Each structure stands twice: as C-alpha cells, then as structure tokens.
Fold this protein.
Amino acid sequence: MKDWDEIKAWRKARRAELIARREAADRAARQEWNARMTERLIAGFPALAGRIVAFCWPYRSEFDARFAVRHWRERGTTAALPEVVAKATPLRFRKWWPGAPTRPGVYDIPVPDATDVVVPHATIVPMNGFDEQGYRLGYGGAFFDRTLAALAPRPLAIGVAYELARLATIFPQPHDIPMDFVVTEAAIYRAGGKALVPIAPERCAAESATLLAARDAAATGALPAAGYSSPACYAHEVAPDYFGVQPALSKDEVLKLLNTLLEAERAGAKVLAAFLDDYARDTPAWRQLAAVQRDEARNCAILIELIRRLDGMPSAATGGFAEKALAVEGRVERLNFLNRGQGWVARKIREALPDIADPAVRDALAKMYDSHLLNIEACEALVETL
C-alpha cells in the first residue's frame, strides 16, 4: 500500500475498528489490564521520578495513566496534560495536579486552565493501535508526531495500549515517529528494528534512564566523552518537509554514507571479538562486551539490507579503525579507544540524519544512533570497574 489517500482510508477504518474493540472489552478485564500496565510503568520507568511527565486524560476506555502518575508525583514528578493550540501545530503542555483548574478541551477532555507551560522529559502516549515497529495509530490529527518532532531534546515516548490494539503495520510515513517503548498488559517492549522486543522491567529501567540522560546531555551540550562535538540533533525524527527544508543527500550520497558506516561497524565487530579475549568468559564484563559486539554485527546486517534496498553494492572492506584499535594495549585504553570509534559513528549518523529523505533509512539509522549512545554509556561504566 503506497498511495497516501489509500493509507489514510485504511487507517481510518482500522482506528474505528480498534476503538470499538477496546470499548467492547469486558470492564473487569480492562481494569485488570490497567493494573498490570500501571505496575509495568512503575517498575520499568523509575527514572521518571523527579522529572516532568506528560500524560493524557483517559478517553473512550483508554488506559488510565493517572495511577502511575500519582506514584511518580509522590516522588517529586511534575505532571502535565496536553493542550491543543491550533490545528496542524505541536501540542503545548501545562502543569496538572489533583485539584488544578481545568476547562473542557477538544472532545471535552479536561485541559489545565492557565497553569504553567512546561516541556516534558517523557510522554505517556495513548495508542488506538500500534505496530511491530512501535509506530502509533492515534486519532488522525498527527498532534503527537508534530510535538515529538518539534521538541528538542525529544521526550521519551512511552506508548500505552492493550494487546488487542496490535497490528502488523500501520504503513508508517515520513512524518510518523515511533515510540521508544510500548507498554501493554502483557509486557514492556523496546521499539527497535523490525519487531517489538519484550524486555524485563529491570532492563527497561536501565535503558530508559540511559536514554533520558543522553537526551539531557544533548540539551545542555554536556555530551559523553566519546568525541561528540555538538549537541545531538533530533530533527531526523521529522518529516523532511515539516519545516520547509528539503533533504540534501542524493541516493548516491546515501549509499556512500551507508557503506562508510558498514565498514566502520564491521571494524567495530572485529575489534570487539578480539577484545573479548581480555575477559573471562561469561563474566559480567564479558557479557556486556558480547552484547555490544552483537549490536555491531546486527548493524552490519541492517546496513547491508539498506544498501541492497537502494540497489547498491555493499562494501566488503573493513574500516581502518580495526587495525589501529587492535594495536592498543590495556583494557582501559582499549575500551576508551573503542568508545572514540563509537562516538565517531554516532556523530556521523547524527550529522546525516536531517538530510535523509527515505523513511526506512532514516528510522533505521535513528535507532542505530540510540543504540550507540547506550553502548557508549555501557562501556564507560565498564571502564569505571577496571
């Protein structure tokens, strides 16, 4: 399905079906689902305590986030509700607390009345539907997509829905922005790649805290010591024409970039395979580096697929980083050198993303960028233990 009018019609029909299915679900079952989802949010996102968290007032039998928000508020969180400013514009968020003055907004949903405007660190986003890549089917106004695209740094996007809302795909378009995490009554999922990956609350807590810290650093310029020279640019999560800027990279330039990244990731995978010999097998340090090595290998496979999708020829070369890294002696020195290489790749991706038009390439590289931030953080933590 490629025609936008056809996709819009399909989405409208699925939206109506999924809302009807949700509203028809047994009330007691929905209450049980809500309780499970609240528990998962609390266990999976403790880093939201003390931050600004936006949520939506429950509408048409949606998940009720107020219980999780109450838990976070008791731990210093500032809660906020969205306000529709105008059609086709980003949402504005205003402080909310129990007893805050409100007025009826769109669909008569309560909106804080003249309370302070805030910028959230995270948003709990209701979804009428969601797909295997973490893309959201909302109410058709694209308010959340515009909002996530406009805010810098981008808030942590946590999609919430019942499993009955799950779809194979929503046929995502360039303006659609995937969630970072999806929470249902069944599991917490990390949105990354071709399928949602269920993760334990403990892992979610670690990954969400790292993403929040990385985006905080992007906002302040206090970036990780991995070679970043300027704050991260989240404009890659915007459709190219959102702000009237057209992509600058041609197909050939994109292919050149992808092959450069492929050679670098292949070098990283080779280096990590060698570095693993520095550690006893199945120790925490070995497992951490093995996970990073798997990411590098997976990135190679993704890049090869993207290159072939663009009718290009994947490079068979290995980046020069490998030879230099393998000559470094000492665990700490090797890890620091590895992180400089990961920082170079992340910077390369970050600089190119705003100029890439192809949504599949842009989305894959955006996820690759986030994974590099997580791996840099993990390697820095490992250095501190040596």
